[in-house]
Specification:
heterodimer; A: mainly beta; 4-stranded antiparallel sheet; 9 strands; B: 6-stranded mixed sheet; 0% helix
Chain lengths: 111, 116
């Protein structure tokens, strides 16, 4: 699986959009971009994933650059409950045994 | 619907004792994974079950660790003769592996194991 690079930490004001970047310059054509988050003392929570096209669900939007070498997770209206560590992972979508979580980005939403 | 559940949520044991951790995957999910997460660290893969296939045990750190999955559903992770370095949060995940799904893993809340 391709390696990802994320900023160590970010702050965001409550109610504003949180934009979390991820670089994955060695991504392969069959690898998906997945985002998870982990709130303190809880298991990782799936957020969204995509291959080439931008994706949106009830939690977030995922913007993938045309060359697929980077992506951005957007939380449109961050709340205090969105404070967590956010992990960007690239992996083959099927028949893959494990998720390789890096250090992630610690997002702190401030009032 | 119900998510992945794990029990117990917390387990404190003495060094040398055996422990069993339980995972109930999402109904209908054919794949089940065990990970562990030490304090402030990323996830460490332990073992993977998929349907009736032989499990992938490549992540188990020693022969003190074993896991089984009965009836293709509930899984138990057993740690024998626990050591202090086994202290961690043990996470279970399940996924629906099919020709149209992308094997998105859904995690349980974890079991926090403390070995004194």
């Amino acid at each position: 699986d391709a390696k990802t690079t994320q900023p160590t930490s970010m702050d965001c004001a409550e109610g504003r959009a949180a934009n979390l970047p991820c670089n994955h310059s060695t991504i392969s054509g069959n690898e998906y971009v997945y985002w998870y988050r982990q709130i303190h003392s809880q298991g990782p929570q799936y957020i969204i994933h995509g291959l080439k096209n931008n994706e949106t669900n009830e939690m977030a939007s995922l913007i993938i650059t045309e060359d697929r070498k980077s992506s951005t997770l957007i939380l449109p209206h961050a709340t205090l409950r969105d404070t967590a560590v956010y992990y960007c992972i690239v992996r083959v979508g099927r028949n893959n045994n494990d998720m390789r979580f890096g250090a992630g980005t610690r997002l702190t939403v401030k009032p | 619907g119900a998510g992945v559940s794990q029990s117990p949520s917390n387990k404190v044991t003495e060094k040398g004792k055996d422990v069993e951790l339980r995972c109930d995957p999402i109904s209908g999910h054919t794949a089940l994974y065990w990970y562990r997460q030490s304090l402030g660290q990323g996830l460490e893969f332990l073992i993977y079950f998929q349907g009736n296939s032989a499990p992938d045990k490549s992540g188990l750190p020693s022969d003190r660790f074993s896991a089984e999955r009965t009836g293709g559903s509930v899984s138990t992770l057993t740690i024998q003769r626990t050591q202090q370095e086994d202290s961690a949060v043990y996470l279970c995940a399940s996924s629906l592996v099919s020709s149209v799904s992308t094997d998105t893993q859904y995690f349980g809340p974890g079991t926090r194991l403390t070995v004194l």
